[in-house]
Amino acid sequence: MHVSHTIASWRDRRNAFSRSVIGFVPTMGALHRGHASLVKRCRRENETVVVSIFVNPSQFNDPKDLDRYPRVLERDLALLDSLGADDVFAPDVLELYPHGYRFRVDQTGPANVMEGAHRPGFLPGVMTIVLKLLNVIRPSRAYFGEKDYQQLRTITEMVEDLFIPTEIIPCPTVREDTGLAESSRNMLLTPAGRLKAASLFRALTASASADDAKAILESEGFAIDYVEEHWGRRFAAVFLEGVRLIDNVPLP
Ligand code: PAF
Question: Ligand 1 pocket check: which of 129, 132, 174, 247 to mutate, most ligand atoms within 8 Å of Cβ?
């Protein structure tokens, strides 16, 4: 497995296999079983598997959240090697934002719900970095998890509207046995918090309405950011032990 820290070194690598079909898994590191399932699928469907690891500052509206985002590069590289990734692109911030946040991708229209409404700058930050990464990596396919469903939907629409020649592949959420959706942020929970966090999935699936789910979560001590229904799914963002957790399930 080859690791590039600069765009120039990645481009040298890419030129060596310019005819190969490239599958791409963009990540912010702190990899878990959810990421592993994306990489495994990418491995099955493409000749070359590229994974990026980059904690993208422009998508964090809270500097404390950015500071405490887990960073475990050596562990991530060992996992990706064991999963058969060919290349990892792990640049620093100046490499991807050499002129700061000079241009960004913005969305007109109904972005103002859920993450769009509650995390100002998050979706433009995600779209901007994904566009940069797709332009640098130039993959045939890119893999995204349904746990970040609004992100996945926004990226799919951006790729369509900007005629980007990459197919966006949605992949199902991977859950722990308790139902808790795999997330890098789970690492920040105490063992007791992690057990309790499983109530998020239970409340989303077992309630008759978004209001019921909200009432259950409040009674269990979660601080609610939102519980809403869109696109045939029920979504929630909550805080537990100061950690922001999101999840979504299809409506029955
Ligand atoms: O889902 C993530 O990990 C990030 O939002 C992404 C897509 C890698 C962009 O930074």
Answer: 129
**Does CATH number 3.40.50.1000 belong to domain 2-171?**
no
Is 131's C-beta closer than 6 angstroms to any atom of ligand 1?
Answer: no
Q: Does domain 184-250 have CATH number 3.30.1300.10?
A: yes
Q: Which residues pair with 78 in a beta bridge?
A: none
Ligand 1 centre to CA of 119 (Å) is 14
The answer to pTM > 0.85 is: yes
Reduced to 3 states, what is the DSSP secondary structure of residue 19?
coil
Query: Per-residue pLDDT tens for 174-188?
Result: 999 999 999 999 999
35 is catalytic: yes
Nearby residues of 248 by Cβ (< 8 Å), 6 or more positions away: 146, 147, 149, 173, 204, 233, 234, 235, 236
